[in-house]
Q: What sequence folds into this?
């Protein structure tokens, strides 16, 4: 199922890239095809939130393995949490990036794990990892996919009818 989702996402990104190439070209800006495809792929998912979540996990991993001279700083059930929490955050960031349709679940879990890292792992990676993870989780939850807007009158993601200027929305009865 994951492989099918990835293939569908890749097909969608390629279709968007084709429509952008046929649309009005950007003036003065020349990009190569791979960068254009990456840009299209990146815009179809909560990319920045996923990157921040992964960076939080990496920072927490290195803060949990920290040695200050002869002092080994490690908090938790014999260091198990200093490995598990960063792995969870990096995994959640990767899952968010490659399966954006489950972004709300992954964002809430990454936010909860980041806040838990405050007591479970060296004050959340000395607050830096916790803040990165919390911001990444919030960005992931708040991200919305772009809606292709035609000549007006399309539906918004909430299901409400979109109108152009001067028109009233149509009311549909649900019977």
A:
């Amino acid at each position: 199922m994951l492989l099918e989702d990835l293939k569908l996402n890749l097909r969608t990104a390629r279709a968007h890239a084709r429509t952008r190439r046929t649309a009005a070209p950007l003036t003065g800006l020349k990009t190569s095809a791979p960068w254009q495809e990456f840009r299209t792929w990146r815009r179809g998912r909560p990319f920045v939130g996923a990157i921040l979540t992964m960076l939080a996990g990496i920072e927490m991993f290195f803060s949990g393995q920290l040695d200050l001279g002869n002092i080994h700083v490690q908090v938790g059930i014999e260091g198990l949490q200093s490995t598990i929490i960063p792995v969870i955050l990096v995994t959640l960031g990767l899952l968010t990036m490659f399966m954006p349709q489950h972004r709300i679940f992954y964002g809430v879990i990454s936010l909860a794990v980041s806040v838990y890292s405050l007591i479970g792992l060296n004050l959340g990676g000395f607050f830096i990892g916790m803040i990165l993870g919390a911001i990444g989780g919030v960005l992931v939850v708040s991200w919305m996919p772009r809606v292709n807007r035609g000549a007006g009158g399309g539906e918004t993601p909430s299901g409400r009818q979109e109108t152009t200027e001067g028109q009233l929305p149509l009311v549909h009865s649900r019977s």
